[in-house]
Amino acid sequence: MVVDFILNFALYSFIGWMMETIFASALQRKFINRGFLRGPFTPIYGFGAILIVISLNWIFIPTQNTSVLLISKLILSTLLVTVLEFITGFVLEKIFHTKWWDYSENFLNLKGYICLKYSLLWGMLAFLLIRIVHPVIAEYIYLIPVSTKRYVAVFFVIYFILDTTISVISALDLRKTIIHYSDLSLDIYKEKIIKYKRIFFAFPRLILLNANVLNRDVSSILNDRIDKIKDEIKNRFSD
């Protein structure tokens, strides 16, 4: 049971990363590694999927009507994932003193962490998960030999521990850089901003940090870096 949950978590985290990355890359017309972790996984999708699967197995809904049962499951799933998104956004803002995403301009939002639009999107994804995706995935995972699943699960546990540790350390270092920018020389500050450019591109709201501080504007530093890279490429081809 635990092994299957680990495999499901890894798989849904990867699927979530793919959806987010394809969407963000299409909008910005360049590859964007959309996720907190360095690797191709977005854990909130993994947690969301597992939360839905567990709740639907453990929570009893007193009805025999198939339509009512499905609607009840969808409402419950949507609420659970919406709460998860709210908690994640709240915790990230408390740690880093800024919103990693902001739905404040969306209709019926709550403190910018969640809104009706994306809650409905979660509901659509939950419907696909319940009716189509999870039954197929569960069947294929069941066919994998138990010993093989254990080795793969151990690999993913070790991987997620390492990636999460590295990513959290990087994010905390970035937080320290942003908050205590005055303690750093301009060159060191710029080096650190460029070092963590993946995080800024993955979560564009963070680019607004220190926007009104002379020579510390994150957006200007990243744009200057991009311009320099473009100039280097042009010079190479011109030579």
The number of E-state strands comes to 2
Biggest beta sheet attributes: 2 strands, antiparallel
- Beta content: under 5%
The global form is globular
**What's the arrangement of strands in the largest beta sheet?**
1-2
Total number of helices:
8
Count of discrete structural domains? 1
* Order of H and E elements: HHHEEHHHHH
**Terminal-residue CA separation:** 61 Å
Rg estimate, integer Å: 21 Å
Pick out the low-confidence regions.
none
Question: What do the pLDDT scores average to?
Answer: 85
Question: What class do helices, strands and sheet pairing give?
Answer: mainly alpha
Helix content: over 70%
Write the layout of secondary structure elements.
Blueprint: H1 2-28, H2 43-58, H3 66-96, E1 109-110, E2 114-115, H4 116-143, H5 146-179, H6 186-195, H7 197-202, H8 218-238
Antiparallel strand pairs: 1-2
Helix pairs in contact: 1-2, 1-5, 2-3, 3-4
Write up this protein:
Strands 1-2 form a two-stranded antiparallel sheet. It has one domain. Helices cover 72% and strands 2% of the residues. The protein has helices at 2-28, 43-58, 66-96, 116-143, 146-179, 186-195, 197-202, 218-238; strands spanning 109-110, 114-115. By secondary structure, it is mainly α. The protein is built from 8 helices and 2 strands; from the N terminus they run H-H-H-E-E-H-H-H-H-H.
